[in-house]
Known about the structure:
The structure is a single chain. The longest helix has 7 residues, at 15-21. The chain has helices spanning 15-21, 51-57, and strands at residues 27-34, 37-45. By secondary structure, it is of the alpha+beta class. It has a two-stranded antiparallel sheet with strand order 1-2. It has one domain (1-62): Pemi-like Protein 1, Chain: D (Ribbon).
Amino acid sequence: MTATMSTKGQIVIPQTIREALELKPGDDFEVIRRKDEVILRRIGSRPRRRLSEHLGALRGIEIPHWDEPLFSRA
């Protein structure tokens, strides 16, 4: 398979590879240069929610002090 780089430096990963590796929009990649090769390594995906949305979901939940156990012992 081949791909062509655009004038903006973008390369499209072929659909068959995206599907086989289950790549999704927002996935992050490490770009590695090895002599005359360029290697993409997936390192994870971006969070789907912003930190403020996560914190908003915590409203009304009592957070213990740092010196208190999170769970009571059974």
